[in-house]
Amino acid sequence: MAATEGKPTLQHLSDSQSQTILWLLEELEIPYNLNLFERAKSGRDKNRAPASLKETHPLGRSPQLITESGRVVVERSAITAYLIETYDSAGKYKVSGSDENHDALREQELVGFAEASFNITAMTAMMFYFLKVMSPFFIRPLVAAVSTMIHVGYVDKEFDAQFKYMDGLLKGQEYFMSNENPTRVDFVMLFFVQSVYYSKVVDIAPYPNVKAWHDRCVARPAWKRAMEKGAASALSHFRYK
Ligand SMILES: N[C@@H](CCC(=O)N[C@@H](CS)C(=O)NCC(=O)O)C(=O)O
Fold first, then answer.
1. 226 pLDDT exceeds 60?
2. Which of 5, 21, 30, 124 could pair with 63 as two cysteines, CB 3.0-4.6 Å apart?
């Protein structure tokens, strides 16, 4: 991989979880290169990433961060860890607490919770959401019936337990691990919450601390700059607000 002119480079796909890496880059206020990729607008691969993302990583997904030395890093948990470790010299986004709600082990636990436990519930709900939206009208009632079964039997109970857990963690606190600034937990979690909130597969009103946290994250100037730079909201089924 070619070196990147002394700056990290983000391979960014519009309307994707890469938006949260762009947010972190803007928070860090460091120089970086931004390569924008658009989702396919029509055809068999509609909404998928372009094949050109495979030129930098075999999975062809986004985000991909190309480091200053030319190494390609994927997975947001790794990218956020790398960026904060490398560029957050003031320690604004680092976890520094020593009690069990604010230490490094808790941060690791919550990044894992976001990526594994919460993501499984969110993706199950999103899959049925997309199936309903995309299936031909004559089988849609069948898909809707199966979706309801999955929600009643699994998704809704999991969401309730997981949102209650997050709501409790955020009680009296601005961000998951800190009252000052977001940390890796917030950068990783925000996209998952946004996807289920914006597509309305869950009602987040009963979890006011999560709602307030969401609103706080998207009110940050760095998030707003990232939205402008990332060309977000191109998709009709999942609109960034
Ligand atoms: N676990 C990966 C997920 C990356 C991922 O799946 N990105 C999606 C966008 S949200 C993507 O690139 N999809 C390409 C496609 O669907 O063709 C991460 O944390 O970065």
1. yes
2. 21
**Domain range annotation of the chain:** 104-220
Q: Is ligand 1 within 6 A of the CB of residue 10?
A: no
Q: Which of 189, 186, 157, 192 lies closest to 174, judged by CA?
A: 186
61 lines ligand 1 (CB under 6 A): yes
Q: Report the alpha-carbon distance of residue 57 to residue 64 in Å, rounded.
A: 8
pLDDT score of 96: 86
Ligand 1 atom showing the smallest separation from residue 21 Cα:
20
CATH architecture of 104-220: Up-down Bundle (1.20)
Q: Residues 10, 23: contact at Cβ < 8 Å?
A: no
pLDDT digits (tens, 9 = 90+) for 53-100: 999 999 999 999 999 999 999 999 999 999 999 999 999 999 988 899
Give yes or no for residue 48 CB within 6 A of ligand 1.
Answer: yes
User: Which residues, in sequence order, are bridge partners of residue 34?
Assistant: 10
d(CA 191, CA 194): 5
Q: Which residue has the tokens 């409790």?
A: 168
Q: Is the pLDDT of residue 167 over 60?
A: yes
